[in-house]
Prior knowledge:
The complex is a heterodimer of chains A (282) and B (319).
Chain A: H1 4-12, H2 16-40, H3 44-47, H4 60-70, H5 73-104, H6 110-120, H7 129-139, H8 146-149, H9 156-169, H10 172-180, H11 185-214, H12 217-222, H13 231-240, H14 247-276
Chain B: H1 3-7, H2 27-58, E1 61-63, E2 69-71, H3 75-81, H4 84-115, H5 123-135, H6 138-148, H7 155-162, H8 174-202, H9 206-214, H10 219-230, H11 232-246, H12 251-256, H13 273-283, H14 287-312
Amino acid sequence: MTSAVPRRRRHGRVRWWTYLLLVLAAVVCLFPLYWMFVVATTDTATATRMPPAVVPGGNFFHLLGLVLETVPFVQALLNSLFVATAIGAGQAVLCALAGFAFAKLDFRGRNVLFLVVVLTMTVPTQLSVIPQYLIMSWLGWVDTLQALVVPGLASAFGIFWMRQHITATIDDELVQAATIDGASTGQVFWRIAFPIVRPAAFVLGLFGFVTAWNDFLWPFIVLKTPERYTAQIAIKALQNSYDVDLGLAMSGSFLATAPLVVLFVVVGRRMVAGVLEGAFKG
Amino acid sequence: MSAVALTLVPTPRAAPPPPVRRRARGLGERVTPYAYIAPFFVLFAVFGLFPFAFTFYVALFDWNPIGDQVFIGVDNFVRMFGDPRFWNAARNTVSIWFLSTVPQLLIALLLAHVLNHARLRFALFFRMSVLVPYVTSVAATAIVFAQLFDRDYGLLNWLLGLVGVSPVDFVQSTAGSHVLIATMVTWRWFGYTTLLYLASLQSVPRAVFEAAAIDGAGPWQRFRHITVPSLRPVIIFTVVTSTIGGLQIFTEPLLIATGAPLTCGAVRQCQTLTLFLYEQGFGEFEFGYGSAVGVALFVMVVVIAAVNYLLAGRIRADR
C-alpha cells in the first residue's frame, strides 16, 4: 500500500518525450503547408537559392498573375466548390434518408439489402475507370461537372454511418408516437429524425466535401477543357508549364489548399470528433 | 457546439430493436422505404457495379474508343503476361505499397498510444494537426514533396549536403522515387489512421492500463500487451483499406516525374499499375488492354488484402 501513490503518479505523468514526439509529429504535418506558402511567394531566383529561403517572400501577387494567365484558376476553384458542395450535401441527405430507412422502417428484404450496401464497400471501383468513361461518353457527360457530381452523391459508408447514428440516438417510441399521431414517414424523417442527426450528417457531408475537393484521377480523365477544370486538375495544368516559374505549380497548390485549411480551422474539431466517434470502435 | 459530442454516442453492438410496425397503410407508405434507399442502389448499379463487371468484358476485346471493337478472347491477358512493362508496374506497385503502409501503421500505433494519455495537454491541437495532411490534396502533396526532395533546389538535399552527403536524385532512381512516393502517402494518411486507432483505444477502460501499471508493466509492456491486442479489429480494418488504397496509387507518380508523367520517368522507374492502366487506356487508347490491367489489379488487391487479413488475424495469437 505504501508504494501505491508514487506508482499511480508514475503512470499518470506525461513524460517529456511524449511531448517531443507529438510536437515533432505536428511539425511534420504542418511544415509542408508552410513550405508551400514560402515557395509560392518567392521568385525563381530566391526559390533556387542555396541555402533555401525559409521565410515567405513578397512575390505572391506576381505569381498569382502568372497562374491566372496560364489557367482559369478562379473558375477552377468555383468548379471545385460546386462539385464538392453538391457531393457533400447530397451524401448528407441521401445517406441520412437511407440510414433512417434501414434503422427505423420495416420493409421486406431490409436486412439483405443492408448487407448488400456493406458488401458494395469492398468493390474497388477505381479499377473500372475505362468502362466508367464509356458510360459517361454514352450519356454525353464527358467534360461536364455532373460526371463528377452524380456518381458521388451517395456512399455505402455514409449509409452505414448514418444508420448507426440513427439507431443510437432516436428511440423507436418517438417514431411510433409520431406515427400514431398521424405523421407520414416523410414527416417523421424531416421533422424528427433529421434534426436530431443533423450534426452527424454534417460531419459526413464535410468528409464528402473534402474527398471531392481533393479528387484527382476521375476529374483528370473526364475533364477536357480548362474552363471545366477543378482546382486539382488546374494544378496539373500549371505543372505542365513548369519551365515558366518554379513557384507556379506551388502557387496553384497553395490556392487549392488554402480554402480547405481555412475550412479545417473552423470545423476541424468536428472532423476529429467524427473520426474518433466513427464506425470503427473495436 | 457540444451537440456533436452529445449525439455521437457509441453505437450498441446488439441488434437494433424491432422497427416500428405499421399496418393499415397505403401503398405510398409501403414503398417509401424503398424510395429512401433507391438513390444509392441506382447510383451504385450504374456507376459502380456495372462498370466493374463491364471491365471483365472489355478486357476480352481489342477495343478502340474511336474505332472498332474486335473480340479477341484472352489475347489481352496473354499479351499482358508477356509484357515487361506490366511486370515492372506490378513490382513498383507492391514496393510502393509496402513502403507506404508498414511505416504508416507503425507510426500511427505509436502516436495513438501516446495521444491516449489521460493528462495530455493541448490534446485537441495535436489531434487536429495530424489531420491537416488529410485535408491537403494528393496533387498539392505531390507538388510540395517533389520540391522538398528536388535534387538541385530541395531542402532535404541541402540538409544532406550539410552532413556531407552528395545530392540524391530521388525521382530518377527506382528506390529513390519509391521512397519519395511512399513518403507522400505516409504523410497524408498517418494522422487519419492515428485517430482511428485512438478512437478504438479510448473504448478500452483506463482501469485496464492503470491495473497493468500497478502490477509493474512498463510503457513498452502496456503498449505491447494492451494497446496492440485491443486494437486488433481496427488494425485489420486499416491494413485492408490501406492495401486497397495503396495498390491504386496514381496521382503521386503522375505528378513527380515532370518529363515523362505517364510512365513516371524515362525507364518507368515509378510507374504504378493504375498509371500503366491510364497510359494504355487514355494515352494509347487501348481500352481492352487497359481493362485487362484493371482485372489484374483487382486480383492483386483481393489476394494481398486476403493475405494481410490472415496475417493481421495472428495478432491475438501472440497475446
